[in-house]
Amino acid sequence: MNEVCFKNLDKKKCYSLKVYEQSGGYSIWRKILKGELTPEEIIDELKASGLRGRGGAGFPTGLKWSFMPRNASMQKYVVCNSDEGEPGTCKDRDILRYNPHAVIEGMAIGGFVMNASVGYNYIRGEFMEPFKRFEGALKEVYKAGLLGKNIGASGVSFDLHTHLGAGAYICGEETALLESIEGKKGQPRFKPPFPANVGLFGQPTTINNTESFASVPEILSQGGQWFADIGVENSGGCKLFSVTGHVQKPSNFEVPMGIPFKDLLEMAGGIKKGRKLKAVIPGGSSTPVLTAEVAMEMTMDYDGIEKAGSMLGAGSVIVMDDSTCMVATLTRLAHFYYDESCGQCTPCREGTGWLYRVLKRIMDGDGKADDIDLLLGVSDKIMGNTICALGDAAAMPVESFLRNFRPEFEYYIKHGKSMVKG
Amino acid sequence: MADIEIEIDGNLVSAKAGEMLIAVTDREGISVPRFCYHKKLSVAANCRMCLVDVEGAPKPQPACSTPINEGMKVHTNNEKVKASQKAVMEFLLINHPLDCPICDQGGECELQDVAMDYGSDVSRFSEGKRVVVDGDIGPLIQTDMTRCIHCTRCVRFGAEIGGIMEMGGTGRGEDLKIEPFLAEGIQSELSGNMIDVCPVGALTSKPFRYELRTWQMNSVSNIARHDLTGSNIVTQTYKGRVKRIVAKDNDSVNETWISDRDRFSYEGLAHENRLLSPQIKVKGEWREVSWDEALEFAMRGLTDKVLNTGEANKLGALASNTATLEEFHLLQKLLREVGSENIDYRLNIKDLENTVTLESNIKLAGLEGVDHVLIIGSNPRLEQPMINHRLRKASLSGASIDVINVMAFDFNYQLNSENIVTPNQIAFMLAEVLKLILQASNAEIPEALSKIEASDTAKQLADRLLDADNSVIILGEHMVNNPQASSIAQLINEIAQQTNSTTLNISATANSMAGDLTEFVPGKKGLDANAMLATGLKAYILLDVYPHFDFHHPAQAIKALSKKDAFVISMNSFKDEAVAQYSDVMLPIASFYETSGSHINIEGKVQSFCASVSAPSDVKPAWKVLKVLADLLQLPGFHFANSMQVTSEISNQGHKQNVSNKKLDIKVKRSVNVIWQKSPYAVDALSRHASALQATKIGQMHSASMNKATAKKLEVAENDNYLGVPVSIRESVANNCVFVNTNKPIRGEL
């Protein structure tokens, strides 16, 4: 446990440059500055590590970095997505708070690999404390002469800027994030063109999640194979899981991929006293919900969770006990997506509001027998028809809640109240 | 781009790599529904209506933003596509009010049309619908934003074509509202195009509100004659009246856009101030008479006053620049037949010796491709909106644009430099530029330029002209009455020649090119407009002249025309007090869209049009009136049955105005210069009578701008009257300059 991003968690002032360097931090970056590492070597190492994007989509990081036209002459950018907004996720916040230097080093390495001399870290608007921590860390690095132009006459340049968001969930979508950095309204761009060709300010750009960047220095220190071996087939390394909900000790846990869910639940102190596990959302609010039985058999890796019928997402495990009303839960989730839709494209703008209103009506006791079919129909029509994944994110919970807990919805519609007491 | 083959619905289609799929399906006539896509705007891909099935792609792809690849297989109407498109249609309709019966867009609504194919007859949506509260965005565009489907065409139009982002999306999700950012509403001179691009009834024409259904009207193509573009339009008419004007596509002229002036001026046609019947003045009293009687009276007047006395040279003809090619031709022919060369359409120029050549061989579309522009004395956005649009496109594709003006104007593109100089410094500045250019090619420096020490500004202006491969020098309306206009013209011609630049003279607007082509200017022994009025003739034929707006010195002109012994025949479409004062006969003539004829635009393109409606009441087209008058005078060569026969008689003899070779005057004087410009919606009688246009901020322009120092010199303060116009003190005006922009009759001298 806690081998990569949280390596120094138990140390005093673990976020300081001193502590980070004592545990081997910036050794890779210094090697690069000395010219002892090539971009190709780094990409090979990352490919071997099996590191996949930790923001939710799970795209192999090494492969992503190799897509950038590194030899093209124009300005290129690396961007870190720290706009952690998915309900249930709080891992990046703690990386920024307790190990900001790993993010900085990871981004600098990325900048070197992709020949991008400028980076931006886009931090969620509500994260004031992590923002200040990260800014503090940046000051330290600049003072130490590890960032800037032609660093230590190495010929390598990397400047890093922090950009604080303004509270929109949609800005966690990478192209909306780019728009936001550019000073525009946070709305996703249609693709193609992809950011690797036309990204920030129209230049080639690679965007990675905070955890992905923070994992890179340790992977390169210890070797790709070392990292891959921590995890399981197809899900290399360890992963931060944010376990929240009806557990005794909600927390972030950095554990090897492939760990059984029931072990993770145990780490979080198990279900609250006298309660039974009812349902689990394993990867953040947009991933399908699972029943207790399925969840208890599941392992926490890309394939394991997919086999169980959901997605690893950002590793945000929301645990619900038997006092949970699934109608109320889905209504709350639907409200979130309704509220956070950017409004740009039709299915999401109109559909999220429709879903929420129907659920709200059911909650108000005015449900109709065919509302369940209506909800399924509407979510199906949003699914796959939108510019970005927010539409899918809004649709997926609806389908899975209704599939797994349909009787609760039928009961609510028929009786005008929840079947769950508590 | 190489030709590649793709498969659409099982058929092989060739296309260019990188093209968007929707461009290919449109060309092939394959129907793909869409709302946000517009061929002249950037791709937004937000409506999701054009989703199609691309083999290999997991999700349906929007045809508008999917570039094609070799071997791509596309299905536009399989079950998957239909399901997606129907889904999107349902979403678009749930919050749409479906108030088609009271919506002006009904019958020409893209949402209505597509809903016929993809909508469902019963809605599954039983929740409350969204209602959007409307603000007033100005006198031209009616909003009903509850109907908006957020396609953002209007937003993109403003940002990309209009050049000012006036509309935008505020709020997010369901609360996303398309509205102007500013409380002042929409002010662009091209704003009406937003009505055309809006696929639903969210933005409709305010003057046309609740008037008629589109299917009740006849659509007749016509040409807008307000400026040098000759935009192609469609006039929509009902029971003999023009009810609405929309743009007609013509890529080489106006593309898909028209100016607000072209779109909304038609309102003036139905103004109560129309002159509707022929009148003659008997013993100082106006009497309505029949056409026969009026023309007889006119003929007799001419005969008695000048023809029978052998004083044909005491007859003069003056016309406004909105006359048609045929009207210009017939009137000058009539004059020349009776033996007079006193002919002119250049009424607003003080010094007619000092005019600037109108020759230019650049095409409107070609303007987009220039790499450098030097604009002198012009606010092109308001003077020539569509030419300015081309300049904006040139600028967007990298052209550098320099400006020499007497005041800073609101350009809708990036300027390389904006040089604000007093009118009487312009010639000197150009002389500096010319000297540098001559020096650069080691040419001989003329005596007049020898003592000049060129400034840094001039050096930069010269360098850019020398560096450019394809540059154009534009002369605007403010040149017209510049005391050194002749020297400026000489200098520009010389600069253009030395730098291989093209000149583009936009100082004379409307149908001035036709006036030139038909030689509606004095012949060798003839008098020009100013000379006619100064000498005092015995008889005049005036074609649609409104002295308070058309002459450079209205009071003097009126005085000259009012002389007791002068017999004045006025042909007008609108009543005018001054006209009534000096005329002896008033003949009501057809206005825009009521007559057939031709317009010649800046690139020399002759565009002929038919009458969209017949003229009201007893009003006749001017070409017929002139023909009959000529017949009454028993002149040969007027056997025309229609205006086309007149057109075909006109040969292109292109009257080329000579640039005078007078001594260069580049002396900078310290006196205060006044530059007059009519408000863009006061340039012709029709626009002046269009109420919605007049109510806009552009239409209301009425101020004498000057800086503090000039105001002090003239001893005036903010809002004082100067030459009858309220003073506006701003530092954006050159020193020693008053820039008057007015929509009112001009008092004093232009």
What can you see in these coordinates?
The complex is a heterodimer of chains A (422) and B (750). In chain A, helix 5 runs parallel beside helix 7, helix 14 (326-340) packs antiparallel against helix 15 and helix 15 runs antiparallel to helix 16 (371-382). With 422 residues, chain A is an alpha/beta fold. Chain A has helices at 17-22, 27-34, 39-49, 61-66, 91-98, 100-113, 128-143, 174-181, 210-222, 224-230, 261-267, 292-296, 302-308, 326-340, 346-363, 371-382, 390-415, and strands at 77-82, 118-123, 159-164, 205-209, 238-245, 251-256, 259-260, 277-281, 290-291, 299-300, 316-321. In chain B, strand 13 (279-282) and strand 14 (285-288) form a beta hairpin. A 7-stranded mixed beta sheet of chain B has the order 14-13-24-23-22-15-16. The mean pLDDT of chain B is 93. Helices cover 29% and strands 19% of the residues of chain B. Chain B has 24 helices and 31 strands. In chain B, helix 7 (291-307) crosses helix 20 (622-632) and helix 8 runs parallel beside helix 20.
Task: Assess the beta-strand content of chain B as a share of residues.
Answer: 15-25%
Number of helices of chain A: 17
* Share of helical residues of chain B: 25-40%
Number of strands of chain B: 31
Radius of gyration of chain B: 28 Å
How far the N terminus sits from the C terminus of chain A, by CA atoms, comes to 36 Å
